[in-house]
């Protein structure tokens, strides 16, 4: 990643203009051509540096919930369980971690009852119990990283 | 599927709009015009409605989200603490004052398997860096007796935004 990409990322983490020609507006601030900016954003999106371009919803404001879920999966079943869990579009951020509870993912649901259904379904599909750890209080979320 | 969105002040068009951009905006010179074509409303209406949704706090962010791993923050450690219930807010507020903390949440214990009720995330460029930052925080606050564990990420299986918003009237 070069300096131009870094400045694009740092700038766009602050927000994206909402107007007819948002890339043109942003390009002016960055001293780039509109078309060059579009190509660079596309390239950063394609290579995975940007996991998202556009809105990051405030899920609680939309009436939905996020829930952190942990599972304890033995090594010999790990690949199979990961594949099953990742196949749900409601699953984000799935990590293997250094603990007995070794699989940690975030589940998004429209309601408590949908969350319960999803958890039950995942348990049935994988044959392992889930530990749901919903957020009770949020003290802090940092959304920006220096590129 | 629509029921969860009935009480949040969104009308039908806003619901459609939110569903249509949940995987991202089109990367094009007039992204809002492209959305308007899909929804059959004008570009100006898309712009006005998105502006209104931003003002009303429906988005945590409207821009880009980076994969921290690709920026060199290769280690993410989830640090979990067992804090007395009446102190958890104070400790949470103390933890969040450190610049290397990226998340800090209270979550329910799952006794007997899981005693921890305060979760924070530290992103760093190496495990060593993360460990040093954590040790510094513990010693500065005299938390040597507080039970905690560090769960480093070993493998990332998925990092994306979850989809959960159904599209009324639109077949996906």
Explain this structure.
The complex is a heterodimer of chains A (147) and B (172). Chain A has 5 helices and 6 strands, in the order H-H-H-E-E-H-E-E-H-E-E. With 147 residues, chain A is of the alpha+beta class. Chain A starts with a helix and ends in a 6-residue tail after the last strand. In chain A, strands 3-4-2-5 form a 4-stranded antiparallel β-sheet. The model of chain A has no long low-confidence stretch (mean pLDDT 91). Chain A is elongated, with a radius of gyration of 19 Å. The longest helix of chain A has 15 residues, at 112-126. Chain B has 172 residues and is α+β, with helices and mostly antiparallel strands. Helix content of chain B is 32%, strand content 23%. Chain B is built from 5 helices and 5 strands. Chain B has helices at 12-20, 31-39, 43-55, 88-96, 127-141; strands at residues 59-66, 75-81, 101-106, 118-124, 148-158. Chain B has a 4-stranded antiparallel β-sheet. In chain B, helix 2 (31-39) crosses helix 3 (43-55). Classes of the chains: A alpha+beta (147), B alpha+beta (172). The interface between A and B is large, with 81 and 82 residues.
């Amino acid at each position: 990643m070069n300096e131009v990409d870094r400045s694009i990322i740092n700038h766009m983490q602050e927000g994206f203009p909402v107007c007819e020609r948002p890339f043109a507006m942003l390009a002016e601030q960055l001293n780039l051509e509109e078309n060059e900016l579009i190509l660079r954003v596309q390239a950063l999106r394609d290579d995975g540096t940007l996991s998202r371009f556009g809105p990051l919803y405030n899920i609680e404001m939309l009436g939905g919930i996020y829930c952190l879920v942990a599972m304890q999966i033995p090594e010999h079943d790990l690949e199979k369980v990961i594949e099953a869990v990742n196949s749900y579009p409601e699953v984000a951020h799935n990590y293997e971690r250094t603990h007995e509870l070794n699989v940690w993912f975030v589940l998004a649901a429209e309601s408590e009852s949908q969350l319960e259904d999803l958890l039950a379904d995942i348990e049935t599909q994988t044959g392992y119990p889930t530990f749901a750890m919903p957020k009770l209080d949020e003290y802090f979320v940092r959304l920006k990283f220096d590129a | 599927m629509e029921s969860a969105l009935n009480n949040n002040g969104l009308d039908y068009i806003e619901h459609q709009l939110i569903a249509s951009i949940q995987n991202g905006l089109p990367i094009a010179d007039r992204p809002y015009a492209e959305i308007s074509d899909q929804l059959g409303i004008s570009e100006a209406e898309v712009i006005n409605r998105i502006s209104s949704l931003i003002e009303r706090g429906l988005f945590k962010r409207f821009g880009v989200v980076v994969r921290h791993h690709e920026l060199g923050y290769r280690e993410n450690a989830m640090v979990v603490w067992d804090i007395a219930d009446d102190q958890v807010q104070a400790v949470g507020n103390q933890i969040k004052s450190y610049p290397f903390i990226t998340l800090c949440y209270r979550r329910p214990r799952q006794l007997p398997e899981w005693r921890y009720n305060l979760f924070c995330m530290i992103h760093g460029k190496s495990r060593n860096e993360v460990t040093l930052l954590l040790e510094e925080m513990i010693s500065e606050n005299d938390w040597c007796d507080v039970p905690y564990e560090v769960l480093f990420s070993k493998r990332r299986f998925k990092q994306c935004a979850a989809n959960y918003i159904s599209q009324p009237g639109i077949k996906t």
